[in-house]
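**User:**
Make up any protein.

**Assistant:**
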Amino acid sequence: MSGKTPLWIFSFVFLVLLLFLPVSTAEISYTFDIHEDGEDWYIIEYRTLLDSQSRVDEFNDFKLVVEGNSTHMTEFEANMHSIVSNAGIATSRPMTASDFDISVSEQNTATGHYGIVRYSFKWTHLAKVSGSSIILGDVFFGGQYISNGDTFIVKVPAGYKVSGTTPEPDVQRKDELIWNGPRTFNSGEPNITFIKETSWLLVAGILILLLVAGALIYLIKNSTGSSNSPVKPQQVVEVEHQKIVEVEPEELESPEPLQPYVSADSILESDEDMIISMLKESGGAMMQSGIVKNSGFSKSKTSSLLNKMVEDGLIQRVKKGRENLVRLV
């Protein structure tokens, strides 16, 4: 592990894990789950492969420490309260920490058996809400460092989209941004601005209402504007029917929705299953060039399939020299 020190926000949990678990062999994710109402969450998840009896024993010992020692939770709460208080002073924004939780569990995946330690708490006003925008970044004063194999994750608030981010993430999905270690962030980074999404259904609905209102005004004016010319009842029916037809043209209907891509997914399903099978047979990871060679797909088709699988959260792609390493999630 590098000699650089992780961000002060991470320090307590990192040091506790270092005392009991082989941190150098683990992957740690730091997740900031942002919400419009300011009820944000900070989650630290330590994930280690339990591939030997000694690691299983170390993990079980740590589990006993967490479950049988209330002091551990008390120290976690005290340290996080202090960190949040300092952050509130630095950003001139009132902040609180609550709903603390520590959980220890095990998980079987396609790539092995893992031990997972999860620290979390609610951090109000972690991000700055400014009108219709939410900005995350000023809380990361002083800069920070994440180690090789670790990830820094920011969840996009519901109903919002990313307007800008510095630096650019390694992976960007609709609902989250991911930076992979090793990486050093400058003070105030990552800095992300979220803006509200505009629903096309809302826009279409407003346009339809305006068009219908205009058509009704036109009907009223024309039905009361001229009464000198005698009109037979049958003619009235025909004219009114014609006017009704005129206010229901194709342009008043809501825009035809984009063709769903479900059919495309079903077409790609067997190809994705083939890639997943190859990854499982290779121990959960494989170079992208190997997938091209073993599948018989073209480079462009393979790249398109892998992009979609990354978006679906099935795999991760990590840059290894000039190639990409593909591994199961």
